Amino acid sequence: xxxxxxxxxxxxxxTEIHAAILGAVVGVxxxxxxxxxxxxxxxxxxxxxxxxxxxxxxxxxxxAAQQTVxxxxxxxxxxxxxxxxVGLAVV
Length: 91
Known about the structure:
By secondary structure, this protein is mostly helical.
């Protein structure tokens, strides 16, 4: 199990927080892209993120961000949804 944040009683770990941040950023960008009429870009961006989070396999070395999202996919996907709503609300 990963080390808790700031060694407190908080059950969140660095990996969970980083996965949520990555999901939120991708969600905001996808929501904003959809809001300004670039729906094809938004769908492609979000679909690629979901595929990586759920374990899409390919050959080659996996970047650290993808490893983080794969370790904590539900935090990343929940943050993607929330970030998408924020991105749509901004427009």
